[in-house]
Design brief:
By secondary structure, the chain is an alpha+beta fold. 31% of the residues lie in helices and 23% in strands. Strands 16-22-15-21-19-20 form a 6-stranded mixed sheet.
């Protein structure tokens, strides 16, 4: 984590947003509900990501995950130190074979509509997430049975020792609400009824055209948040979000780039924080192993041998991040430091091409096939939604030109995965992956990309199954490291960089967040709700 003085705008934005949320919630709900909601103080957060969905069965974006943290409770939450802590769980025990979890729920927990949370809500949520949710389905892997002996007891049986059970943040939904929907995927979920510390206002009110407002519950079992209204306001550009933070229109801002670091450093009252978080973006180059070129691991490693990761990071973000290596985020405990990493070596890259049947036959500086006499051309796809990708492609184009290989790259309007399908003609694509605090889920995410790349590995699958059943921290570390080494050796993905999550807060208005920063490395997007609970107005 790196501190930079003069960047408290994000927190200002958060404060304004919070206030908006609290006021709107009180107006939109009945008198009894309003009496349990807190109006002030208001905290506004400027965000640069558009919300994809409020429905946990269809959402995939980071902003949605943040909203779910506020509104819904899981059985266990991730604390500011990255470790699981009891949330809806009062206590639990495991059977001697560790396949059965008997969970006792907290007493008296209610959803925001006044109904009581019971074991049937837990059972329903896990069963439906396993069937319908892309965000949480992997959390339910291995669960074969869920029983409810009484309203406060949940008995979960797994087919293997599920070592990551307490790391899975499955949101517990009210069965009485969701069971009435014809299709859970089509339900807009505008009201977001949950048991968490905040409720969403039915009519979001804020100075921006697009905003999402939440209001704090005074009766939350985990304690009352210090802020009353939490407002997230959307800005189409990072510059707009930074301006809101610097002028005091926002209390906090997230999703900024290195450009804003320069402009905000000298702003009085603004505190900037930049650092790689467990869920931060991982810039990734993926190969199509079905293509004639990259079905061969030597040619995949040939690309890595002439790829300057440092240049990509520097040109794309002004060094606001870390050079990549493996699929785990360096902000996690299971990050693996490679004992040997292939260096940039143009001669080694040329030798790989020669051994694969390519040479500069006509001395024009370009490598041709000795069989077909055709120039070697690699087809790359990028997305216009990833600002870093065009810069990375430019650097890669220059790197490959050093060894006489032509890069032909195309930018798509949407997700590159819509173009780079298993049956399409492509060689490489640039992907924006996300890290995960849970090593099992991180590995599962990578395995899910197998349908894109065509990559299959019996060794990877075997290691993942061993990791799933690990409860001993040393074994988790060992198997997670072996998984990362396996992926590196196979070279189906080249992890270019771990992007910094750049945030700002108005330190001249707010306090209480310092301890959260010391442990989590960031305020927001950490997978923890602690910052939202801890931030408090600065005493005048």
């Amino acid at each position: 984590m790196k501190w930079i003085t003069g960047t408290p705008r994000r927190i200002a934005a958060l404060a304004v947003c919070c206030a908006l949320l609290a006021m709107t919630a009180a107006c939109n709900r009945g008198g009894e509900e309003a009496g349990r909601l807190k109006d002030e103080p208001r905290f506004t957060i400027a965000v640069t990501e558009m919300l994809d969905s409020l429905n946990p069965f269809t959402a995939e974006g980071k902003l949605a995950q943040e909203f779910f943290l506020l509104v819904y409770d899981p059985l266990w939450r991730i604390g500011a130190d990255g470790e699981p802590v009891n949330c809806l769980v009062e206590d639990y025990s495991q059977s001697s074979d560790q396949l059965t979890w008997t969970i006792r729920l907290r007493q008296g927990v209610t959803f925001s509509n006044g109904t009581r949370l019971t074991s049937s809500d837990v059972q329903y949520s896990y069963q439906m997430m396993a069937l319908h949710s892309e965000m949480y389905d992997a959390c339910c892997d291995g669960i074969v049975d869920i029983r409810c002996p009484d309203e406060r007891t949940v008995v979960i049986t797994t087919s293997y020792v599920k070592g990551d059970m307490r790391l899975c943040p499955v949101p517990i939904l009210p069965k009485s609400v969701w069971n009435q929907q014809g299709s859970v995927e089509r339900y807009e979920n505008a009201e977001m009824i949950g048991s968490g510390p905040f409720v969403r206002l039915l009519e979001d009110q804020g100075p921006r055209d697009v905003s999402w407002v939440f209001q704090a519950r005074t009766d939350y079992f985990g304690g009352e948040p210090h802020i009353g209204t939490l407002c997230f306001e959307y800005y189409a550009t990072e510059t707009g979000a930074a301006r809101a933070l610097s002028t005091g229109g926002a209390d906090a801002a997230i999703g900024m780039t290195d450009v804003q670091l320069v402009t905000l450093e000298g702003v009085p009252g603004v505190q900037l924080v930049q650092g790689v978080l467990p869920g931060s973006d991982i810039w990734t180059l993926a190969f199509n192993t079905r293509s004639d070129l990259f079905s061969n691991v030597s040619l995949r490693q040939m690309v890595e041998s002439c790829l300057d990761r440092s240049m990509i990071l520097s040109m794309s973000s002004g060094d606001a991040g870390r050079v990549g290596s493996v699929f785990a985020s360096p902000a996690t405990d299971y990050f693996y430091t490679l004992p040997v990493q292939r260096p940039v070596d143009y001669n080694a890259a040329r030798n790989s091409l020669y051994l694969f049947g390519y040479d500069d036959i006509d001395a024009d500086g370009l490598m041709e096939s000795r069989v077909t006499r055709e120039d070697m051309v690699i087809r790359l796809y990028t997305s216009e939604n990833d600002d870093w990708a065009s810069t990375a492609a430019t650097v890669l184009e220059g790197d490959l030109a050093q060894i006489g290989v032509t890069l032909r790259w195309t930018t798509t309007e949407g997700d590159v995965r819509d173009i780079c399908t298993p049956k399409a003609n492509w060689d490489m694509c640039l992907l924006n992956m996300n890290g995960n605090i849970d090593p099992v889920l991180a590995a599962c995410d990578l395995r899910d990309y197998g349908s894109l790349t065509g990559w299959q590995s019996d060794n990877f699958d075997a290691l993942l199954e061993r990791l799933r059943i690990c409860t001993d921290p040393a074994s988790v570390q060992s198997y997670a490291g072996q998984l990362q080494q396996t992926v590196y050796d196979e070279s189906v993905y080249i992890f270019l960089a771990y992007a910094n999550d750049i945030q700002g807060i108005r330190s001249d208005r707010w306090t209480g967040y310092e301890d959260v920063l010391d442990t989590a490395g960031g305020l927001f997007g950490t997978g923890s709700v602690d910052a939202y609970m801890s931030i408090a107005p600065l005493a005048s």
